[in-house]
Write a structure and sequence with these properties.
Blueprint (H helix, E strand, L loop, with lengths): L1 H8 L4 H7 L4 H5 L1 H15 L2 H22 L1 H7 L11 H7 L8 H7 L12 E5 L7 E5 L3 H13 L10 E4 L9 E4 L4 E4 L5 H11 L5 E4 L1 H13 L1 H11 L5 E4 L6 H11 L3 E6 L6 E6 L2 E4 L4 E7 L5 E7 L10 E12 L2 E9 L5 E3 L5 E3 H6 L11 E8 L2 E7 L21 E7 L13 E2 L1
Parallel strand pairs: 3-5, 3-6, 6-7, 7-8, 17-20, 18-19
Antiparallel strand pairs: 1-2, 4-5, 8-9, 9-10, 11-12, 12-13, 13-14, 15-16, 17-18
Length: 444
C-alpha cells in the first residue's frame, strides 16, 4: 500500500498536489499519526518522574511482548527476563539496564525464527548495505505514521507545515527529467544525474516557490556550489531562493562542516539536522552543531562505556512489535550527557557505517576528526574530498578541484601530521556516488 501511494503521488500534478497537501496527515496515515503527536506533546511537557514512569511502562510492555513471541529472544534474555516483573514504571526503567545488549550479529541470529507471515500490515525493511553487514527485519504497520509525526515535529522548529513546498536532493534517478513533483510530501525531487546546466534551468523556474531545501548535505552543497560558480545559470536559482526560502533540512548523512558552512553562508537561512537510522530505535534533533537531543516519545536512548574513549549509543523501540530492537547497539560512538535516567543529549564521535580508517599500528581513526577536525588548506580551494582505504596504514584521498587549480602538490594542502598512514591522491572530475546518489566520506 505504501508503495502504491508513493507511485500515485509521483503522478499527481503540483496544481492538484497543493490542494492535497492541505489534507491532514491524520487522515492520510490514520489515527496513529494523531496519537503520536499527542504522545510527543505529553512527553515533552512531562515532569521527570512522570516521564520516567511512562518510559518504564512502555519498556516493560515491549520486552514482555517479544519474550512471549520469540523463544530465541526469551533464551537471550535468560534470568534477566524476570527483572522487570510487576514493578512500576519508574523501577522498570531503573532495572532495564540489566537486560543484555543486542548487536546486529545477535539480532540476525534471533531473526532466524522470524515468521514468514508477519502481522497484518507489517513491512520488511533492509539496512546496513553500506557497512557490508546487511540486516532485514520487519516493522509494524504504524511505524511510518509514528515516523512522520516525529519528523514533522523536528521540521516545525524551522516553521514547517505540510503545505510548505520542499526542493529535495536525494538519489532519485528521474531519467531525462530534471525535476519531478511528489504530492505525498509536497516536494519536488531534483535529478542528481543530469548536467548542472539542465538542472539549474529547471530549478530556476520553481526556486521562487520553494520554502525548504531537503536532502543529502553533500548533494545540496554540490548544487549550491555550482550555482555560485556559474553565475549565468546559478544567479537565477539563488535569487529565486531569496523570495521565500525559510530553511534547510539536512538528512541521511552527517552534515560535514565543509558542506554545511558553505551552503548556510550562501543561502542565508537556518538549517537543522537530525540523528536517525533505519532500525527506528532512536530519533534525535539537533540543537547545536553535532549536538542531538533524543525524542523520548520515539524510543529509549542509552549509552554504555567502551574500552576506549566514548560510549556506544544504545536504542530501544517502544512500539515495534515485529522485531525485538531492545537495547540495540547502533554501533555509533558518542559522547553524552544524562539526567534523571535519560540521555539528554549526545555528540556523534564515530559513525556506524565505517567512517574511520586504520593506521599501520591497527589504531582506528575517526574520519570526522581527521578530515573535518583539522585545518586543511585544501578546503580553501577544493570542492570535495573522499577517502578510500584498502589496507591498514595506507589511504587514498579522492579530491575534486576547480579547473583552474594546480594539482602538483596536493600533499601540502592537507595536515596529516602525526598520522601513521601513508597517503596518496586521486584527482577526479566528480565525487564518487553510491547507487542511492549519496556522496560518502568513506568510499569502497
Amino acid at each position: 500500500m505504501r508503495r502504491q501511494l508513493k507511485s500515485v503521488g509521483e503522478k499527481v500534478p503540483r496544481s492538484i498536489g497543493r490542494i492535497a497537501a492541505r489534507i491532514p496527515y491524520a487522515w492520510r496515515l490514520g489515527a496513529e499519526f494523531k496519537a503520536t503527536q499527542h504522545r510527543i506533546q505529553q512527553i515533552e511537557a512531562a515532569a521527570p518522574d512522570a516521564r520516567a514512569e511512562q518510559a518504564g511502562l512502555w519498556l516493560k510492555a515491549v520486552v514482555a511482548h517479544h519474550a512471549d513471541k520469540s523463544q530465541l529472544y526469551r533464551d537471550h534474555l535468560g534470568e534477566a527476563a524476570q527483572s522487570l516483573g510487576s514493578v512500576n514504571g519508574t523501577d522498570a526503567l531503573r532495572r532495564f539496564s540489566s537486560l543484555p545488549v543486542l548487536t546486529k550479529q545477535i539480532l540476525q541470529g534471533l531473526l532466524v525464527e522470524q515468521p514468514s507471515s508477519p502481522s497484518n500490515g507489517a513491512m520488511r525493511i533492509n539496512t546496513g548495505g553500506t557497512s557490508g553487514n546487511p540486516l532485514s527485519f520487519f516493522v509494524d504497520k504504524n511505524a511510518f505514521a509514528r515516523e512522520w509525526a516525529h519528523m514533522h515535529t523536528i521540521w516545525r522548529k524551522l516553521g514547517y507545515h505540510p503545505t510548505s513546498l520542499k526542493l529535495t536532493f536525494r538519489g532519485k534517478n528521474l531519467g531525462k527529467r530534471a525535476l519531478r513533483y511528489n504530492a505525498v510530501h509536497n516536494e519536488i525531487h531534483v535529478n542528481p544525474y543530469l548536467p548542472f546546466e539542465v538542472t539549474a534551468k529547471a530549478v530556476a523556474k520553481v526556486a521562487p516557490n520553494i520554502d525548504y531545501l531537503h536532502g543529502y548535505p553533500s548533494s545540496i552543497y554540490e548544487f549550491v556550489r555550482q550555482s555560485t560558480e556559474s553565475p549565468s545559470l546559478g544567479d537565477d536559482v539563488l535569487v529565486g531562493f531569496q523570495k521565500r526560502l525559510r530553511g534547510i533540512f539536512y538528512g541521511s548523512e552527517f552534515p560535514a562542516p565543509l558542506y554545511r558552512d558553505f551552503v548556510d553562508d550562501v543561502v542565508g537561512v537556518p538549517s537543522i539536522s537530525w540523528y536517525g537510522h533505519s532500525e527506528m530505535c532512536i530519533l534525535a534533533y539537533e540543537t547545536d552543531r553535532n549536538v542531538y537531543v533524543p525524542m523520548h516519545s520515539y524510543g529509549f536512548t542509552e549509552t554504555i562505556p567502551t574500552d576506549d574513549e566514548g560510549e556506544f549509543l544504545i536504542g530501544t523501540s517502544y512500539f515495534n512489535t515485529e522485531t525485538p530492537f531492545v537495547r540495540y547497539n547502533t554501533g555509533d560512538l558518542v559522547s553524552s550527557t544524562s539526567a534523571n535516567g535519560f540521555v539528554e543529549s549526545f555528540q556523534v564521535l564515530q559513525g556506524r557505517v565505517g567512517d574511520f580508517v586504520t593506521d599501520r599500528h591497527g589504531q582506528r581513526i575517526s574520519l570526522t576528526a581527521l578530515i573535518f577536525g583539522r585545518h586543511h588548506k585544501f578546503f580553501d580551494v577544493g570542492q570535495f574530498v573522499q577517502v578510500r582505504q584498502t589496507e591498514p596504514g595506507k589511504m587514498t584521498l579522492l579530491v575534486v578541484l576547480p579547473e583552474n587549480v594546480l594539482t602538483d602538490d596536493l600533499a601540502s594542502q592537507f595536515d596529516l601530521s602525526n598520522v601513521a598512514i601513508d597517503c596518496d591522491f586521486e584527482v577526479r572530475s566528480t565525487p564518487v556516488r553510491t547507487p542511492a546518489g549519496k556522496m560518502p566520506l568513506l568510499v569502497d
